[in-house]
């Protein structure tokens, strides 16, 4: 079954179809290979052959949509403008910085201790708009199928007004970037924050919506909290078994678990019938059908 899924995906990608049957998403670009949420990693993921780029976004003080997993500079991977390792990440709040200050930080040269094979190189946090522009140009130059974008809005109730704008404003800023790039039909908005997905739905945009879940094994209760059935249910892969896949499909949703990095887990999930995988190692996922 693994081989069948991958063959179907390869045929549809080669045909230039924008909605391949099986969706391999490069998590934060290709975090296992290159610095996360940075241009080099996104382009590497494209070159490897992903169908979707998974991208985290926050907002700067001057309302720029910035690609970053945290709304601050991570103490794990970032260095300050003087080249010193960040000690207290929350002291470097992106929501309080104009973007010209954000790009003075390097979040790639130190590497990530959890990804020992990651290539260390300087990396700044790019604008979402420039990621889309450069990826679209890169894909056009390769002559391959158009890329899809899974944009995660990093919001929490306790962050409102301190680390992020409230959901309605956050969603509107991302919406403006997506509309300007003319990629609406290839965008998914995902979040753990049901308020953000509710705000995204109220806009009436053509983008798809995905609810993220990390701890609740009861899919129905997650959807009840959300208040509507999204296009995609994206749980932590450890929450997924055959009954969950069946229940998600019965509700008319796709199931795309995160973050699946080990080949045996990838195979297990594909054999269960998931609709895609979010992974730090898209090269591993795309090699599942290799001898």
Q: Tally the helices: what do you get?
A: 10
Q: Main beta sheet, described?
A: 9 strands, mixed
Total strands: the figure is 9
As a percent range, the share of strand residues is 5-15%
Rg measurement, Å:
18 Å
Order of helices and strands: HEHEEHHEHEHEHEHEHEH
Q: Report low-confidence residues grouped into runs of 5 or more.
A: 1-20
Oligomer: single chain
What would the principal axes of the Cα set say about the shape?
Answer: globular
Summarize the structure.
This protein has 291 residues and is of the alpha/beta class.
Please describe what this structure looks like.
This protein is of the alpha/beta class and 291 residues long. Helix content is 34%, strand content 15%. It contains 10 helices and 9 strands. α2 runs parallel beside α4 (128-142), α4 (128-142) packs parallel to α5 and α5 (167-181) packs across α6. The longest helix has 15 residues, at 128-142.
Write the layout of secondary structure elements.
Layout lengths: L1 H13 L8 E5 L11 H10 L3 E8 L5 E3 L31 H4 L25 H15 L5 E6 L13 H15 L5 E5 L2 H9 L5 E6 L5 H8 L5 E4 L6 H9 L3 E2 L7 H10 L3 E4 L2 H5 L5
Parallel strand pairs: 1-2, 1-9, 2-4, 4-5, 5-6, 6-7, 7-8
Antiparallel strand pairs: 2-3
Helix pairs in contact: 2-4, 4-5, 5-6
List keywords for this structure.
single chain, 291 residues, alpha/beta, nine-stranded mixed sheet, 10 helices, 9 strands, disordered N terminus
């Amino acid at each position: 079954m693994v081989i069948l899924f991958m063959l179907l995906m390869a045929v549809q990608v080669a045909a230039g179809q924008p909605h391949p049957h099986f969706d391999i998403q490069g998590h934060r670009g290709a975090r296992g290979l290159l610095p996360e949420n940075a241009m080099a990693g996104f382009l590497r993921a494209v070159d490897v052959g992903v169908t979707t780029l998974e991208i985290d976004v926050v907002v700067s003080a001057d309302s720029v949509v910035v690609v970053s997993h945290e709304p601050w500079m991570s103490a794990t991977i970032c260095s300050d403008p003087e080249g010193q390792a960040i000690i207290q990440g929350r002291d470097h709040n992106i929501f309080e910085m104009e973007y010209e200050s954000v790009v003075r930080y390097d979040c790639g040269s130190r590497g990530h201790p959890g990804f020992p094979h990651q290539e260390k190189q300087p990396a700044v946090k790019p604008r979402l708009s420039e990621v889309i522009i450069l990826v679209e140009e890169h894909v056009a130059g390769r002559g391959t199928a158009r890329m899809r974008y899974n944009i995660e809005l990093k919001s929490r109730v306790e962050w409102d007004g301190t680390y992020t704008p409230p959901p309605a404003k956050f969603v509107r800023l991302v919406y403006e970037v997506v509309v300007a790039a003319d990629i609406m039909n290839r965008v998914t908005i995902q979040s753990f924050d049901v308020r953000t997905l509710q705000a995204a739905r109220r806009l009436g945009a053509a983008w798809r919506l995905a609810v993220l879940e990390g701890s609740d094994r009861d899919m129905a209760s997650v959807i009840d909290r959300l208040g509507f059935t999204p296009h995609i249910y994206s749980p932590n892969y450890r929450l997924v078994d055959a009954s969950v896949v069946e229940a998600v499909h019965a509700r008319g949703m796709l199931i795309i678990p995160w973050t699946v990095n080990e080949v045996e887990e990838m195979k297990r999930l594909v054999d269960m019938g998931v609709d895609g995988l979010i992974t730090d190692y898209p090269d591993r996922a795309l090699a599942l059908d290799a001898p």
